[in-house]
Design a protein that fits this description.
The protein is of the alpha+beta class. It has a 9-stranded parallel beta sheet with strand order 30-29-27-24-19-18-17-32-31. An 8-stranded antiparallel beta sheet has the order 4-5-6-7-8-15-14-10, with no helix packed on it. A 7-stranded antiparallel beta sheet has the order 3-1-2-16-13-12-9. A hairpin with a 2-residue loop joins strand 6 (54-59) and strand 7. Bound molecules: ligand MIG. Ligand MIG binds next to loops.
């Protein structure tokens, strides 16, 4: 047992058994700084007592004792749990936000048709936060083999981590608050990549759009119906018999034209890419794979073959640099040659039809690491998608793009390369709530660019023997959009064989409601984009459970049917059929975004007619929103608060942001000048302030300004009272609202 510090953030306990050779972690991006000695160590806020097989840690008011033991093939770590502790994290789990009293498995799995409690799903992140009213402390068992984590399910006062590996780097991460643990975990495993700005707009998919003309038709329908849409996905039917990096020439006679036409209509094209390389000596990708030794082998040195979409398939061996470079080259060529804008990685658990649970598991399949050593698949399983995403990301960089990669599977650190969606969810009300719980867990585990298939993917009812039942109602689709518009990834997608699910598929009334919700989404992009930048620079999630913002409010410890977008907006979505919901609001004062009504801490019954999700703004909110071209709106609630607006051209691979500082204090709002502005940085500002009554006057830089007729266009300083107070001003000004 070797114990070291990672800066001041984390303690690392490394175990290597039976003289086995140490494998580098693909998850962790920071190296240890100081090594600790046996006995007592004091380092900054840390007190650590190390013995041969246990360790006592005390840091920022939290204490934990870890005991290490070993069986033949396992490393077991036990720690103490307090009666009032709650547990967050663990990545993608179909469980409540508070994971206490559950037992989970870390093993990336193709989980089609999963339900509440199904475990495991596609992504494995063996990281969790133990929290109570004193604060939080993090645990991260960094092994890519199968791990079982029991959280007070056997003994109420104990958690157990069972690692099926010969090596383990176990990290203890300090708080003090749960949010500090999350940010330090992101520091450890890498900052989320900055996606292109268009990735924040609506995206449309189905399994599958073809032929080529149908794709253009879909794009045009969005335009005609006044619906914002940034991208269309091509699912597996675009390929020539599922050979990756090829086209079915009957369905897609001219893919370059398709991309060109899409681009002319302002829409990006994203193709799915599976990890299956069809075993076919006549297929170029297969030949390159064999010649370069880029494919996974069996332990006897023969090619390992699994059943995938193309039938007999080989799996690229992403665990070594040579394969990753080869793959990056394939992606680069694909993207450049056909004008593809982003890559969708599916089946990367990896899935295989001829393995149990549709998922590769084998001590026979081996992978080659950078140092040439061969390791059985089972020790590396959970990292397959992470390495694949790494290579795909590099390919997009080589093609000169700011990468957009969407991955189904992943491991700790996947946020450095990809967005994640929650796989094959189901179109029913159970999932409307479950998806939220899953996503909040991902957020608390460092994966910030996330979303679920809007409207739901699968249409079967569990217990029906897999038969298709069409369970999506117009009400459910609208309710789904109502909260999905607040998540970074907003993608409508549905299964093969299912009825149409585009926003217009349910008639004019539904279309109208979704159109308004998409307009709200477009308005929110400056806020969401700033939050993406903040996630990229500071390692903060974009969407957050209430506990993230309100750690001292015991009422929110278990709330996972409400969430925050950044520091200001609280969303309490309607998750059952009906038009009201009970909402809990934490400490402070909250403004109902739709009505302007001010509410205090506590439970409230809120009217929620279809199309109007309950949204509340905290006191001191400064939410940048998109208004008319050239005008930046700032949705404001007076009080105390600050925010930084981030912007850039949205697409260049290594941007320097333009930053606009905003502050509100009492009744004055200060808008700084842009730092590092571009010609596009708006200097016209429209403050949109929730006030209870018309002010007696408004000053800008201490000079009174006139009340004038309202318009959205840029214009001279003025104010106007409608439902909100509108103040037209410029950057570099201080606005005071005088009662
Ligand atoms: O076995 O590519 O989760 O989004 O449409 C199904 C076809 C394979 C699973 C993905 C889904 C995608 C589908 N894929």
């Amino acid at each position: 047992m070797k114990v070291s510090m990672i800066n001041d953030d984390a303690l690392r306990i490394s175990v290597i058994r039976n003289g086995s050779k140490y494998r580098e972690s693909p998850a962790v991006v920071v190296k240890p700084s100081v090594e600790l000695v046996k006995g007592e160590n004091r380092l900054g806020p840390w007190f650590v007592d190390v013995t041969d097989d246990s360790i006592d840690v005390s840091v920022n008011n939290m204490k934990v004792t870890l005991r290490f033991s070993y069986s033949n093939d396992q490393i077991i770590v036990r720690g103490n749990l307090g009666l009032n502790d709650v547990v967050y994290g663990l990545g993608e789990k179909a469980l409540p936000l508070n994971r206490k009293r559950f037992r989970v498995t870390m093993w990336n799995t193709d989980a089609y048709g999963y339900r509440y409690g199904s475990d495991p799903l596609y992504v494995s992140i063996p990281f969790f936060i133990v929290a109570n009213k004193n604060g939080g402390i993090g645990h991260f068992a960094d092994s890519t083999a199968k791990i079982i984590i029991v959280l007070g399910a056997l003994l109420e006062n104990e958690f157990t981590v069972i690692v099926n590996d010969y090596q383990l780097d176990y990290y203890v991460i300090r708080g003090p608050r749960p949010r500090d643990v999350v940010t330090r975990f992101i520091n450890l495993t890498g900052k989320p990549t900055l996606m292109p700005k268009w990735a924040l707009r609506h995206q449309q998919s189905r399994y599958s759009y073809y032929p080529q003309d149908r794709v253009i038709e879909v794009i045009k329908s969005f335009k005609e119906k006044g619906l914002d849409n940034a991208a269309v996905y091509l699912d597996i039917h675009y390929m020539d018999n599922y050979r990756i990096f090829t086209w079915n020439k009957d369905r897609f006679p001219n893919p370059s034209d398709l991309a060109k036409n899409a681009h002319e209509l302002g829409v990006k094209l994203i193709t799915i890419v599976d990890p299956y390389v069809k075993v076919d000596p006549g297929y170029q990708v297969f030949r390159e794979g064999i010649n370069g030794n880029y494919l996974s082998l069996d332990d006897d040195g023969g090619l390992s073959i699994v059943q995938g979409w193309p039938g007999k398939s080989a799996l690229p061996d992403f665990f070594n640099k040579e394969t990753r470079e080869w793959w990056a080259g394939l992606i680069e060529r694909w993207v450049k040659e056909y004008g593809i804008d982003g890559i969708w990685l599916d089946m990367n658990e990896p899935a295989a039809f001829d393995h149990p649970n549709h998922t590769v598991s084998s001590k026979v399949i081996t992978h080659r690491l950078d140092d040439g050593s061969r390791i059985p698949h089972d020790f590396l399983h959970n990292a397959y998608a992470l390495y694949e995403a790494m290579a795909t990301y590099d390919g997009l960089i080589k093609a000169g793009k700011r990468p957009f990669v969407l991955s189904r599977a992943g491991y700790a650190g996947i946020q450095r390369y990809a967005a994640v969606w929650t796989g094959d969810n189901t179109s029913n009300w159970e999932h409307l709530k479950l998806q939220l719980q899953i996503l909040l867990g991902l957020s608390m585990s460092g994966v910030t660019f996330i979303g679920a298939d809007v409207g739901g993917f699968a249409k079967y009812v569990p217990g029906s023997g897999g038969s298709m039942l069409f369970t999506l109602s117009p009400e459910l689709l609208v309710r789904w959009y109502e909260w999905a518009i607040f998540f970074p990834l907003l993608r409508n997608h549905t299964s093969i064989g299912s009825p149409d699910q585009e926003p217009w598929a349910f008639g004019p009334r539904t279309l109208e409601l979704i159109r308004d919700l998409l307009r709200l989404r477009v308005k929110l992009i400056p806020y969401l984009y700033s939050l993406m930048w903040i996630s990229h620079i500071e390692g903060e999630p974009i969407v957050r459970p209430l506990i993230y913002e309100y750690p001292d409010d015991e009422e929110v410890l278990n709330i996972d049917d409400e969430f925050m977008v950044g520091p200001f907006m609280l969303i309490a979505p309607v998750l059952t059929s009906g038009n009201v919901r009970e909402v809990y609001l934490p400490d402070g004062e909250w403004v109902n975004m739709w009505t302007g009504e001010v509410l205090g801490k506590g439970f409230h019954i809120i009217d929620a007619p279809l199309g109007k999700p309950p949204v509340f703004l905290r006191k001191g909110s400064l939410v940048p929103i998109q208004e008319t071209q050239g005008v930046l709106g700032i949705l404001t609630v007076l009080g105390d608060g600050e925010f930084k607006v981030y912007d850039d051209d949205g697409e260049s691979p290594t941007p320097t942001p333009s930053i606009l500082g905003l502050r509100v204090s009492g009744e004055s709002v200060t808008i700084d000048n842009w730092v590092n502005p571009t010609p596009q940085s708006p200097s016209s500002i429209l403050l949109e302030v929730y006030v209870s009554k018309e002010p007696s006057s408004v000053t800008i830089n201490d000079t009174e300004v006139a009340k004038a007729k309202f318009t959205m266009e840029p214009g001279p300083p003025s104010w106007y009272m409608d439902k909100l107070l509108y103040v037209r001003t410029m950057t570099g000004s201080r606005v005071r609202i005088i009662n």
